[in-house]
Amino acid sequence: GAGVSQTPSNKVTEKGKYVELRCDPISGHTALYWYRQSLGQGPEFLIYFQGTGAADDSGLPNDRFFAVRPEGSVSTLKIQRTERGDSAVYLCASSLVTSARNEQFFGPGTRLTVL
Amino acid sequence: DAKTTQPTSMDCAEGRAANLPCNHSTISGNEYVYWYRQIHSQGPQYIIHGLKNNETNEMASLIITEDRKSSTLILPHATLRDTAVYYCIVRPGNDYKLSFGAGTTVTVRA
Question: Residue range A50-73: average pLDDT?
Fold first, then answer.
């Protein structure tokens, strides 16, 4: 079946602009995660949804970052007043249930470049 | 604080077994050892996980020492497509987020 998809694959924006990054999880997966990966580093947790609600947003770096998942499926990560330091690959993952196995299926990521 | 320690990089010969070490000396009793890998320009991919016993699946084997302070991921017959960054992650059984370190960059050479 289809895996996790993310759009756009690449996004170039100017400092101060607003961006939205979209994630389509695997159908039926109730858990959804956003991570951010800077060059040469491992992914860093941002936020976790169980259904429609954000169960843990402790990884969001500041209040310019916000994410929603209104119908418990597609999620959008929103970044206001972008800064050059926001440049990174933003990864989305989903899993069927939160369990000991917790196999998270990752999308290919959106590469965000802030000029 | 880093929960795991991995070598920065390693080379492997195609067709040979690749043994990837990971130290997790502060692991707690309820924490699992997970391995993910990330091929260039792709998202991470789950490989295997274990608690105390050794585990094997179609991709790899995981050997965990008796004191659980270290583990080894074994790719039995490395291919060029196994070239990737391999992440060893320690995660409590009731947790959901993955805490990635820098991983080991594995290069399989023909």
Answer: 95
